[in-house]
Amino acid sequence: MKINKSFENKNVLVLGLAKSGTSAALLLHKLGANVVVNDANAKQDENLLKQLKQEDITTILGSHPDDILSKHKIELIVKNPGIPYTNPVLVTALANKIEIISEPELAYQISDSNLIGVTGSNGKTTVTTLINLMINEGGKKAYVAGNIGVPATTVAQEAEATDTIVMELSSFMLAGIRDLHPHIAVVNNIFSNHLDWHKTRANYIHDKMRITENQTNDDYLIMNWDREEWQKIAKKSNAQVVPFSRQGLSEDGAYEKDSQLFFKNEYIMDAKDIAIPGEQNVENALAAIAAAKLSGTNNASIVQVLKTFSGVKHRIQFVDKIDGRVFYNDSKATDIEATEVALSAFDQPIILLAGGLDRGDDYSRLVPMLKKNVKAVVLNGETADNFKEAAEKAGIETIIKVDKVKNGVSTAFELSEPGDVVLLSPAAASWDQYPNFEIRGDEFIEAVKNINK
């Protein structure tokens, strides 16, 4: 951790609590700032509140007071990434030219570690995890942080100058950076996510690509090369572009050719030996290989990780095999593209559990994949009726609606036969029924455990 005196005696508002907000507030207090924490939700984790109270940090819960900025003479805001800039406090702050940053930006301000940043619409948690495992397997110390569930400000204080922080960065986090500068940036893919927040695809792409805006020719941008749009976007970066391609469109980086994985013409391993299933995980592996090789990791360590890594929880996660049926939890599939990826990972007949928050998505886009090998769908949530229409267009005859995921598991088991896959891949966010996709996935896992009990 490097010394940064720019926060001394500064009046800082941390907007949004949770783990990252608490970590940011404690760090700012440690740096000598006058910290105020504000969250509209009055119900908070008691352990987090206790930590703030022990340091006498002012905490305001239950609303966003209109006068919070003027009353506390706020000079800087560190905001929770999920809070939109339409929030009245942020609107007022912007009008008064008060700087607003994200928690990863704050972490960067005090970090002296090597930084690898990872973003993308899908697969970024898997890529982040793989890179971290590969570097550690190779004998160097690496940490994960950011959108993966570990506050970046916590890790930045622990990691040493010789260590690497592999930081998963959402578009929301990247919207609030200023100086954040990864030596290696990874963009796994860019689809059309979170348009309810970003409003347009152009805005979404802009925020995603902020990951490379502070990079120079001494840095690297690892970019998915399998779409022409992504190739064009990458060429706007000042960094050295290192492509990865499952279609073998470039041999200047990591690529698949004849079912084998290479990095700059150097053979790494056979694609079939990757432990986690699906074509998307070949892409994830290629992105991670590129980052690991650029970090100086040896091939043996890379191969060992890819052969043994069984996947990230809630991301096409193997749960159990019961009476010949195989259960997978893909609760992180909060958009149509992620569910397309999950469906493409299996050749067996699928009983699909889907549905969730209605954000106006067109589920007819899923019809081609539903036709492939989905034999029945079990639906819940706000999107159930829209998803039902898509399933009917795909010719699926067995369509059942349930009230919760846990009830969908027992229904899916009754519909299934030995050799089938029971897959939770909602193609929608969880917020209509669950606080987050993790709780939704945990409910699925628990329901699977209770089958036959």
Walk me through what this model shows:
This protein has 453 residues and is an alpha/beta fold. It folds into three domains: 8-97, NAD(P)-binding Rossmann-like Domain (Rossmann fold, 3-Layer(aba) Sandwich), CATH 3.40.50; 105-308, Mur-like, catalytic domain (UDP-N-acetylmuramoyl-L-alanine:D-glutamate ligase), CATH 3.40.1190.10; 317-449, Protein-Tyrosine Phosphatase, Chain A. The protein has helices spanning 18-30, 46-54, 68-71, 88-95, 103-110, 124-137, 152-158, 171-174, 195-198, 201-208, 228-234, 279-294, 299-308, 336-344, 367-373, 384-393, 405-415, 437-449, and strands spanning 11-15, 34-39, 58-61, 76-79, 99-102, 114-119, 142-146, 164-168, 184-187, 220-224, 240-245, 254-257, 260-263, 266-270, 317-322, 325-329, 350-354, 374-379, 398-401, 421-424. The strands form three sheets. Strands 7-8-6-9-10-11-12-13-14 form a nine-stranded mixed beta sheet, with helices on both faces. A six-stranded mixed beta sheet has the order 15-16-20-17-18-19, with helices on both faces. The radius of gyration is 23 Å and the shape is globular.
